[in-house]
Amino acid sequence: MENDIQSVLFSEERLAEIVQSIGKKISEDYKDKNLLMVSVLKGSVVFMADLMRAITIPCSIDFMAVSSYGSGTKTSGVVKITKDLDINLKGYDLLVVEDILDSGLTLSYILELLHARSPKSIKICTLFDKPDRRAVDLKADYSGTLVPDEFIVGYGLDFDEKYRNLPYVGILKPGVYEK
Ligand code: IMP
Ligand code: MG
After folding, report:
1. Handedness of CA 31, 32, 33, 36 (dihedral sign)
2. What three-state secondary structure class fits 171?
């Protein structure tokens, strides 16, 4: 697996620092609120697991899954819910936790849907942000770090369902997705 990585963009240590700093901010901002963190599977699962432990106030969690990518590296714009939330959103201050905000198409669809369920508030937290590729007017309320317009893998992010278990984030060698 390591042999497929061209270069490491974010080490384990750097990711931990980023996650701690977002967790600290969220803990302050939500201390008098009713925080529900919603992880969008599967990419955000590693970030979610670390972020929730960097949050020092009580919070609830839930998961939903949508499919948007197929196995390629470009967004299709087609989004389908494959797993819905268990929790009724009324009374909750929702924080949608995403791995990466790219075109924004996936998230804008999810937000519209969640909005209709009348939570007290909705905010977006993304670990990575690729603003160059935004196709809709969408800004994250919490964003870990900007990334260049390259396809990255690791720390939950996949290519063709692989590399999610890399503890760091890197760029694949071009040969890997030309196979
Ligand atoms: P969007 O709808 O274009 O914003 O796509 C967001 C989703 O695409 C993310 O949740 C990821 O699952 C996936 N994605 C976007 N960029 C990358 C990348 O560089 N590596 C891996 N997955 C990505
Ligand atoms: Mg994802």
Report:
1. positive
2. strand
Q: Which atom of ligand 1 sits closest to the CA of residue 75?
A: 3
What global pTM score does this model have? 0.92
pLDDT digits (tens, 9 = 90+) for 128-178: 999 988 999 999 999 999 999 899 999 999 999 999 999 999 999 988 877
Q: Taking 80 as the threshold, does the pLDDT of residue 86 lie above it?
A: yes
Ligand 1 centroid, distance to 32 Cα (angstroms):
32
Task: Report the DSSP beta bridge partners of residue 121.
Answer: 93
126 ligand 1 Cβ < 6 A: no
Regarding the beta carbon of 43 and ligand 1, being less than 6 Å apart is answered: yes
